[in-house]
Design brief:
Layout: E1 2-4, E2 21-25, E3 28-32, H1 37-50, E4 53-56, H2 67-80, E5 88-90, E6 92-94, H3 101-109, E7 115-118, H4 138-147, E8 151-153, H5 167-182, E9 188-190, H6 196-205, E10 209-213, H7 215-219, H8 243-254, E11 260-262, H9 271-274, H10 289-299, H11 306-317, E12 326-330, E13 340-341, E14 346-347, E15 359-361
Parallel strand pairs: 3-4, 4-5, 6-7, 7-8, 8-9, 9-10, 10-11
Antiparallel strand pairs: 1-2, 2-12, 12-15, 13-14
Helix pairs in contact: 3-4, 5-6
The structure holds (4S)-2,6-dioxohexahydropyrimidine-4-carboxylic acid and zinc ion (ZN).
Zinc ion binds near residues 31, 33, 57 and 267.
C-alpha cells in the first residue's frame, strides 16, 4: 500500500490535482447481488471494474439451492463478463428447510460454492424459501463445521411483533449467540451488520466469526429514509439504524480489527420496484462502492487501514490469498452517479445527485 499527497500540478489545467491518493491491493466484495438476465449483464461490469472477486448471493427466484444451480449461475455470470475482465464470482448455497448435509459438502468439495447463506424465512428479498427453524438445520451446520465451510447470515428476527429497528439485535441474542454456542467450530459471517450489539457479538467470537460492513450503513442513518419525505432509495434490509450505531460501524470498519471486512450488499432493483406502494429493499452501488469506502476511511483519518479492510481481512477469513495487482484511489471529485439504463426502466445508484470526493484512477 502506498499513501501519497502528490506534488501539484501534474494534471491538465482544468483537472484539479488530487490532494491525497492511495494505492491498495485489488479488493474483493464479500457480499453482492448480481441478479440474472439483463440486470446481471448491466451490473456485473460495474462490480468487475472495482473488485477482483465477489461472493454472489443466491437469492434468485428460484433460489440457488443445488450444486447444479450454482454451477449454471456461475456459468451465466462468466458469460456476462465484459471481454478482458478477470472477475471471479464465488458462489453460495441458499439454505432451506430441506437442504441436506450431503449436498452442502458435495458443492463445497467440488468448489461449486464457498459458503452457505442463511436467510431466516421471509427476512428479506426472495427469502421466503429460507429457513423456518434453525434447530432443524443442525445436521447441515454440523457438516459445515466439520468441513470448514462458512455460514453467511442475514441476521434479522422474522418475528413480526419485533420492531424492525430491533430485529438484528434480537436475532443476535435469540438465534445467533445460541447457534454459536451449539456449533463452536462453525465459521460465521454476520452480513451487513448495522448495530453496536452485532459488532460486539462478532468481536467476542472472532476469529472464527467475521462481519461485512456496507458503504451505506457507514454513510447514512435511519433518518436518511425520511429526509424531507419518504426516500425509497435509502431503504434496505437490515434498515439503517440510529446515528450512534453508524458511528460504531465506522469505528469498527476503520479501526484495524481484522474481523471486519468489505461487503457492499449492492442490491439492484428497477426504479419502479423501489418507488412503489410496497417498495423493494436494496441499495445499489453501481461503480462507486470503493470510492464511498475511501471517503469514509479518509474522513476517519484511517486511509492506511483501507487496504486491510478491502483486500486482506475477508480473504484471510475465507482462507484465500489476497489478489495480485492494485488499484489507486484519489481525492478527486467525480460527477454524481447516473442511473443505470434498463430501457423501459432504470436503476438508481446510491448517492445520486452528489459529487463524490474520491475517484478511482486506473
Ligand atoms: O436490502 C437488501 N436487499 N437486503 C437484503 O438482504 C437483500 C437485498 C436484495 O436482494 O435486494
Ligand atoms: Zn444482501
Amino acid at each position: 500500500m502506498t499513501l501519497d499527497s502528490p506534488a501539484a500540478p501534474s494534471t491538465p489545467a482544468d483537472t484539479p490535482s488530487p490532494r491525497r491518493q492511495i494505492t491498495i491491493r485489488r479488493p474483493d466484495d464479500w457480499h453482492i447481488h448480481l441478479r440474472d438476465g439483463e440486470i446481471l449483464r448491466k451490473v456485473l461490469p460495474l462490480t468487475a471494474m472495482q473488485f477482483a472477486r465477489g461472493i454472489v448471493m443466491p437469492n434468485l427466484s428460484p433460489p440457488v439451492t443445488t450444486v447444479e444451480a450454482a454451477l449454471a449461475y456461475r456459468a451465466r455470470i462468466l458469460a456476462a463478463l465484459p471481454a478482458g475482465a478477470d472477475f471471479v464470482p464465488l458462489m453460495t448455497c441458499y439454505l432451506t428447510d430441506t437442504t441436506t448435509p450431503e449436498e452442502i459438502e458435495r458443492g463445497f468439495s467440488e468448489r461449486a460454492w464457498i459458503a452457505a447463506k442463511l436467510y431466516p424465512a421471509g427476512a428479506t428479498t426472495n427469502a421466503h424459501h429460507g429457513v423456518t427453524d434453525l434447530n432443524r438445520l443442525a445436521p447441515v451446520l454440523e457438516r459445515m463445521e466439520r468441513i470448514g465451510m462458512p455460514l453467511l447470515t442475514h441476521g434479522e428476527s422474522t418475528d413480526p411483533t419485533v420492531d424492525i429497528f430491533d430485529r438484528e439485535a434480537r436475532f443476535m441474542e435469540e438465534s445467533l449467540v445460541p447457534l454459536l454456542a451449539r456449533h463452536q467450530g462453525l465459521k460465521i459471517v454476520a452480513e451487513h451488520v448495522t448495530t453496536a450489539e452485532a459488532l460486539d457479538v462478532v468481536r467476542a467470537h472472532a476469529p472464527r466469526m467475521g462481519a461485512t460492513i456496507t458503504p451505506h450503513h457507514l454513510m447514512i442513518n435511519r433518518s436518511a429514509m425520511f429526509q424531507g419525505g419518504l426516500r425509497p432509495h435509502h431503504y434496505c434490509l437490515p434498515v439503517a439504524k440510529r446515528e450512534h450505531h453508524r458511528l460504531a460501524l465506522r469505528k469498527a470498519a476503520t479501526g484495524g480489527e481484522t474481523c471486519f471486512f468489505l461487503g457492499t450488499d449492492t442490491a439492484p432493483h428497477p426504479r419502479r420496484a423501489k418507488e412503489a406502494a410496497c417498495g423493494c429493499a436494496g441499495i445499489f452501488h453501481g461503480a462507486i462502492a470503493l470510492q464511498c469506502y475511501a471517503q469514509v476511511f479518509a474522513e476517519e483519518g484511517a486511509l492506511d487501514r483501507l487496504e486491510a479492510f478491502a483486500a486482506f481481512n475477508g480473504a484471510r477469513f475465507h482462507g484465500l490469498a489476497p489478489n495480485e495487482g492494485s488499484v489507486t484511489l484519489a481525492e478527486l471529485p467525480a460527477d454524481p452517479p447516473q442511473p443505470l439504463d434498463l430501457g423501459e426502466d432504470e436503476i438508481v445508484v446510491f448517492r445520486e445527485g452528489e459529487t463524490l470526493p474520491w475517484s478511482i484512477l486506473r
